[in-house]
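Data deposition worksheet. Section B asks for the primary sequence of the deposited chain exactly as it was used as input, without tags or linkers unless they were present during the calculation. Section C holds the resulting structure in C-alpha cell form. Section D is free text for depositor observations; keep each observation to a single sentence. Incomplete worksheets are returned to the depositor.
Section A, Depositor: J.P.
Section B:
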Amino acid sequence: MSDPEVVALVQRKLKQGKSRYRIKRVLKEQALTDDKIDAIFREAEALAAPTRTGTVVSGVNCHNCNKAIKDTNDMNVVAFFGISPRVFCNDCYSSRERGILRHTLYFPQKFPINSALFKIGLFVSTVVILFLAYAILGDSGVWTQNGKAAAGEISNEVKLLISGFLLLSLGWAWVLHLYTSGKISQVKRYSLVFSKTSLAH
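Section C:
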C-alpha cells in the first residue's frame, strides 16, 4: 500500500471514530516505524485541521492516485468530457495513461484549466464571444427591421441557437475557472495549516 493510500485509510478511520491506538496497531503490522506512523497521522489530521476561525480545511486529492496535493505547482485541473472537473498531480497528469486520455476525453487538451494560458484564452474568448453575440443579436444590421430574415440570410432562430451556444459555452468555461480558483485557494489553505501542524508536532 502506497503512502497516499495509507494516509487516506487513516483519515477514513479517524472520521469513523476509531481510536488512534487501534489504528497504530494496524499500521505496525505493516512493518511501519513509529516515526513513519506519526508522519502519516500528521498528514491525515491535517486534511481536516481546524483554522483560527474554527472552520475545517479539507485537502485536495489527486483524482487518480489520491495523493494529498500540498502545492499549487503540483496541481492540474482538467474537465472530463468538458463537464466534470478533476484534479491530477503532476505525475498522474503527465503519465502515459493520462496522456492518451487527455487528447480524447479531457478538456483542455494542451494545458490545464489552472494554467496562465487558459486564463488568457478565457479573457480573450470572452471579448470575442460577447462581440459576436452582440453582432448576431444586437442592432448591428444583422437582423432585418421587420424581424424576418431576408432571402439567403440565416433565420433568426438559427442565430439565437448559435449565440445561445456561444454564451453557454463561455459561461461554463467561467464556471470551470471559478471552480479551479476555489481549489487553488483550498490547496493554499491546506498547505498553510499542514505546515503549522507539522511544526507543532
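Section D:
Residues 56-201 form one domain.
The two ends are 25 Å apart (CA to CA).
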